[in-house]
Each structure stands twice: as structure tokens, then as C-alpha cells.
Amino acid sequence: FNEKLSNPQKTIEVIQKYEFTFQKKFGQNFLIDSHVLNKIIASADITKDDFVLEIGPGIGTMTQYLAEAAGHVLAVEIDKTLIPILHETLASYDNVEVINEDVLKLDICKIVKEKNGGKPVKVVANLPYYITTPIIMGLLESHVPVESITVMVQKEVAMRMQAGPGTKDYGALSLAVQYYCEPYIAANVPPNCFMPRPKVGSTVIRLTRYSEPPVATENEQLMFRLIRASFNQRRKTLANGLNNAPDLHYTKEQIAQAIEALGVSASIRGEALTLQQFAKLADILAKQ
Ligand code: SAM
């Protein structure tokens, strides 16, 4: 397999040779389009100085592009039937390491420290869509040193990541992503660029990690609890959402006072608050 895998013929050839069967439960939709791959590599801004973590290499289609652009690639694949395939398709690259693990069970922080001396890595992936949110939240919330995360996700999820207050896509994911990173939509990708074709449209989004969050709060944990409580009950007011949250223990009066101190209407809905306002609300309530 000296040629690149990024076309339907090569992909079919590999799959047939190994009698590989696609597993729906692993979200397997392999890229078969070289333009899309070049676009992902360019958006991720990979250079020979970079250590790249790839989640879910599949048969190694994107890994080949990453290996050519990066200094080192660590690829984590859950499906053990893909491992012998990857050994063959990546045989000519000496800067790629494949490990057979579930990325959600892996201590990425520890691995990155071991393998890259704790220096920040770039994450690049065509993600398995069934676990997009846990993967992204895990990378953001744990202290994995990452410079950027460039990922193919379901279009609708990309919209949620970059949505602002008052829009239908705005929610806990938008706020978490935007607290840690600056999102940038790099490309929309139609189903025919994958094998098999997914039922939904896809988007490449780059999340560039801030060195400091864009808003300051003394109690990050409380802020995220407030955010979750506000969006758990979308149609309710902010006050009701906070009153009903099992992990918040403020009285009705304390909540009403805090909302007043924030300087917004008592009947405001959580979905109208900006990240700055959630940060301020957390600081107000933390003092109660
Ligand atoms: N990178 C390949 C490409 O672009 O053609 C494959 C992308 S495919 C959408 C997602 C890949 O993630 C599959 O290879 C799948 O087996 C793998 N995967 C699914 N769940 C995983 C998990 N929990 N940990 C690691 N890899 C996983």
C-alpha cells in the first residue's frame, strides 16, 4: 500500500484483503476524499515540530497525511481488527505509534506527559460521532496539555460548539467549548466523502485552546454546575432551573437576589445568559 488510501478504490482493496466489516457501534465512517484530508491537515496547522494525537485512525487514511506533516503521531484505535491493517498501511512511516485502546478509558494526560514530555499536543480526528461530546469534554476538562483540537464532527454538533446566547443551538456544550477554546469552522463535508456514508452532514471544526479562559471566575466548578442546571430545563426560567437542580443548595431567596445582583430580569431564561454572565453569577452565589 505505497499509495495513499484516500480514495474509494484503495479503501475497498484494504477492506477486502482483510475481510474487514464495518462496525456501527464504533461509529466507523472512513474518509475517502483527499481534498477533505488536505483541508483537515491545513486547518490543524501541523508542522514537523508537532506531536499529534489521533483518535480512531480506522485503516489509517488520515494517519498517513498526519505522519507526513507531523513530527510524531500517536493513534488510539478501539477496534482490534484494525490493528493488523494499520501495521501494514502505516509500515512506511517511522514516526507513527498505534495503540489499541478505548480513548475514553485512557489516561491521555499521563500518556502525553510520558511521550511528549508534557508539552502541548495537537489532537486531530475524524471522530466516532456516538462519543463526540464525552471525548471533547474529557479533553477540555482534564488537564491534558493540548494546543488545538481539529475534529470532524456531526454538523449539528459543530453548530452547538460555536453557538451564542439566544440561539437554538446554544447550550452547555457551547459554553464549555467557548470557555476553554476559540472555535473556528474549517469546512462542511458531505456524506459522500465517507465510506459508508453517514446519515448526517459533517463539519471540520478547530478548537484553539486559550492560554487563559476569556472570562474569570473564582469558582469554575460552580459556574459549570449553574450552566448545566440552566440548560437541563430549557423552557424554564433561570431561577427555576437553579431552584430545581439537585446539586445546588441555594434558597429561592438567595437565587432571586443573585439574579437581581447580576442585573438581569427575574424571569430571564438561562439560554439568554452569556459566558461572562454565568461567570459573574457563579462569583455572586459563591459569596452567599
Ligand atoms: N480516521 C479514520 C478515517 O478518517 O477514515 C476513521 C474515522 S471513523 C469516523 C472513527 C474511528 O474511531 C473508527 O476507526 C472507530 O473504530 C474508532 N473508535 C470508535 N470508538 C473509539 C474509542 N472509544 N476509542 C478509540 N477509537 C474509537
TrEMBL record:
The gene is rsmA. It is an enzyme of class 2 (transferase). It catalyses: adenosine(1518)/adenosine(1519) in 16S rRNA + 4 S-adenosyl-L-methionine = N(6)-dimethyladenosine(1518)/N(6)-dimethyladenosine(1519) in 16S rRNA + 4 S-adenosyl-L-homocysteine + 4 H(+). One of its GO terms (molecular function) is 16S rRNA (adenine(1518)-N(6)/adenine(1519)-N(6))-dimethyltransferase activity. Specifically dimethylates two adjacent adenosines (A1518 and A1519) in the loop of a conserved hairpin near the 3'-end of 16S rRNA in the 30S particle. May play a critical role in biogenesis of 30S subunits. Belongs to the class I-like SAM-binding methyltransferase superfamily. rRNA adenine N(6)-methyltransferase family. RsmA subfamily. Its main location: cytoplasm. Its EC number is 2.1.1.182. InterPro entries: KsgA/Erm (IPR001737), rRNA_Ade_diMease-like_C (IPR023165), rRNA_Ade_Mease_Trfase_CS (IPR020596), rRNA_Ade_methylase_Trfase_N (IPR020598), rRNA_adenine_dimethylase (IPR011530), SAM-dependent_MTases_sf (IPR029063). It is found in: Cytoplasm. PROSITE patterns: RRNA_A_DIMETH, SAM_RNA_A_N6_MT. HAMAP family: 16SrRNA_methyltr_A. S-adenosyl-L-methionine binds at N29, L31, G56, E77, D102, N126. The keyword RNA-binding applies. It comes from the Bacteria. Keywords: Cytoplasm, Methyltransferase, RNA-binding, rRNA processing, S-adenosyl-L-methionine, Transferase. Residues 36-211 form the Ribosomal RNA adenine methylase transferase N-terminal domain. NCBIfam families: ksgA. It comes from Muricoprocola aceti. This is Ribosomal RNA small subunit methyltransferase A. It holds the Pfam family RrnaAD.
